[in-house]
Amino acid sequence: MTTETTASETPETPQSPETGTSAAPAATGLIGLPAPLGRALATGGGVLAVVSTFMSWTWTSAFPGDLTVYGYPGGLQVLVLIGGILTTLFGLASYGVRGLTALTPGSADSALKMAALGTFGTAWYTVIAISDELGGVVNLDPGGFVVAVATLAALVGAMSLPFDRPEPDPVDPDDTGWELFRHQNRQRWSTFRASFAAKAPAPGGPMAAWAEILVIVAAMAVGLFVFSYGVGTSYDELFVGFLIMAGFGFAALSKAGIVARVSAITAKHRNITMTGAFLAAAAFPFTQSNDQYATIGVYILIFATVALGLNIVVGLAGLLDLGYVAFLGVGAYTAALVSGSPSSPLHVQWPFWASALLGAAVAMVFGVIIGAPTLRLRGDYLAIVTLGFGEIFRITVLNLDGTSGPDVTNGSNGISSIPNLDILGFDFGAEHQILGSTIGRFANYLLLMLIITLIVVIVFRRSSDSRIGRAWVAIREDETAALAMGINGFRVKLIAFALGACLAGLSGSVQAHVTYTVTPEQYQFAYVVPPNSAFLLAAVVLGGMGTISGPLVGASLLYLIPAKLQFLGDYQLFAFGVALILLMRFRPEGLIPNRRRQLEFHEEAEAPAVLTKAGA
Questions:
Q1: Which tens digits make up the pLDDT trace of 400-427?
Q2: Closest listed residue to residue 306, CA positions, set 332, 286, 325
Q3: Which residues make Cβ contacts (< 8 Å) with residue 302, sequence separation at least 6?
Q4: What's the whole-model pTM score?
Q5: pLDDT digits (tens, 9 = 90+) for 82-108
Q6: What sections of 375-488 are H helices per DSSP?
Q7: CA 439, chain centre distance (Å)
Q8: Three-state secondary structure string covering 338-397
Q9: CB atoms within 10 A of CB 243
């Protein structure tokens, strides 16, 4: 007996010719152009953008940077040239050109989109700035029109490249018009984000140890060049263009998978990476023709070192400290009192090593005194108490003026005329000839702060990898569970509080000599000039809690960007606040997070293969 089966009335799903499985719907781009045409537009636009930088963009040199020269890019043209080269290289890599595919172990298309977007943003910002400052588009030369059209074509072509669209969420038929509008916007945003998504790059092949070290050296050289260029931008338009190109350029390298590959190599050679980073930072003063930008560098290092000390308290132990800048002030005032300043009532002058140790010790004692009665609190209550301590310190040193209290700190006048350091006959206030370069006062202190920063980094790294460090992470993740497992929470938190205060006091002992004067208003919770408690906490959260490089990068950005955005005047803090809000919205884990924290905010990311004590 045979049984007949009827054909299904459901239409058959087309089969893939290679695998025989159901073929997915054809992927499309955000812009409805054919993929081959879009890829050609993006690559050709990148090439044309490079060519346009060798043309004149305006007829007059009144616009900063002198963009009137043919055959020699200058000013903002250099940034567009870099963006055009990246766009061209990623475009050719997306074609599978032999030798260039190694540049994109991640996603060539996503990297191409980011590079094209950065080049477009920098070029059009320049064109608009020229038109606005000089009085209209009539002030553009042919090169200005060429770069505008070329970068627009590259962006349109890149956005037409296909990508895997997310599955649309079902619509509730009972939704109101407003709910339906929000649902559609969420879907559009998900689609837009998916257009830039990149797959995780596959692990790289084995490399010789010397080749990996060369990669680290090259990465440090690029980092030094980018930092020196950003610090040395001589006019406002160039710095804004630098921010645009640097941000999108880094995103393009990240989407391409280059950042992940380099990060894997640096993680494999941690000691060599740390040594190379400090050598690159030490080379910064030798790349400058004067002491102007070394001033910014030394203040960035002071800010970054204190932020790294706060990272022990906030990032590892999970304690919210809103008065941390007071420990910096304790170290600074202690060193100033024994510095030999005529404003000091002690009238003593200790050597630097003694004053630095004393500043660190006194700050640590204050940390223990403040932490012992307060660290049994948690969360917001602890934050309020530490905020109160910061204000109590500032008001106290303000009142120790001989009128409201004993004459110790000279009140609002502070301790002034702090002499320059003299260590083993090396006068930090004088110029010196080193390796054929003239090193000024602030460059001398920059090199000294590098040594202090190195000490803080070593302490942070060793403590985070220790038994105490594992206890800090356990308390940060779940204090109740940690206490149930036998960890003495109060003792462990007190150690973190005292160690963080000690490192801040050590940095403060150098800050006193750099600034010449120590006054109470330098150590407020929020102030227009960092370091202050609000900026320090923002540097830790922005850079990446629980990491070494995160607070260093976060502090550098938080000091450098406000210093360069002074041309905005009254809108400076507004623009700065908007930038922070956007960053926290789209990258809440920070710029350089550990893997554990990244997974907390992005559950769809792949789990790490190996977890370390600090996270990943």
A1: 887 877 878 888 888 888 888 888 888 8
A2: 325
A3: 449, 507, 510, 511, 514, 531
A4: 0.79
A5: 999 999 999 999 988 888 888 888 888
A6: 379-399, 441-464, 467-477, 479-484
A7: 28
A8: CECCCCCCCCCECCHHHHHHHHHHHHHHHHHHHHHHHCCCCHHHHHHHHHHHHHHHHHHH
A9: 22
